[in-house]
Amino acid sequence: MNQDPRWLTDREQRAWQAYRRMTLLLNAQLARDLAKDSGLSEPDYDVLSNLGASPGHRRRITELADRMLWSRSRMSHHLARMQQRGLVVREECETDGRGALVALTDKGVRTIEAAAVPHVESVRRHFVDLLTPEQIEAFAGIGETVVERLTGPGE
Q1: Where does the pLDDT of residue 155 fall: very low under 50, low under 70, confident under 90, or very high at 90 and above?
Q2: For 76, how many CA atoms within 13 A lie in the half-sphere containing its CB?
Q3: Strand (E) positions, 20-63?
Q4: What CA–CA distance (Å, rounded) separates 153 from 28?
Q5: CB burial string 68-101: b at 16+ within 10 A, e below
Q6: Minimal CB count within 10 Å: which of 42, 64, 115, 151?
Q7: Three-class SS of residue 89?
Q8: Does 154 score more than 80 pLDDT?
Q9: 88 vs 27, 34, 49, 94, 155, CA distance in Å?
């Protein structure tokens, strides 16, 4: 059981370090642009866009937390702040008295619709438009392979 460590080769180390640095710099830039263009934080945008893509612009709070890989507590606190700003509303679940739903308000819908255009433009400017179609395809495949390994098939 005393196996030698499988150190990264120079090529593997270069790829790993490029990925790490890219994600840090890209996420920071996208967050700056999002705040400047729409006044939203990344967590705000993530909640709004997940709800915007959900049937009826609503979802069980526990499902939303699971989907975003957040704890129930973090989700609850963040939703409370968003509710105070009039972006979301909590609703009782008609089919399960124990469950709760969160839904976009009209203001929440308008907010995500207004934020989406400049956010997509930022993603294009700082990521998509820098890559060739072949690089985009390779990147998508790489991401899907890693995500599938970490989450299991179909998640």
Answers
A1: low
A2: 6
A3: 58-60
A4: 30
A5: eebeeeebeebbeebeeeebbbeeeeeeeeeeeb
A6: 151
A7: strand
A8: no
A9: 25, 19, 12, 18, 26
User: Residue 83: how many CA atoms within 13 Å on its side-chain side?
Assistant: 12
DSSP state of 1: -
**Which percentage of the chain shows pLDDT scores above 70?**
95
Correct CATH for 14-151 of 1.10.390.10, 1.10.10.60, 1.10.10.10, 1.10.540.10: 1.10.10.10
Global pTM exceeds 0.70: yes
Strand partners, 51: none
Q: What is the pLDDT of residues 78-96, one digit of tens each?
A: 999 999 999 999 998 777 6
Please tell me the predicted confidence (pLDDT) of residue 54.
94
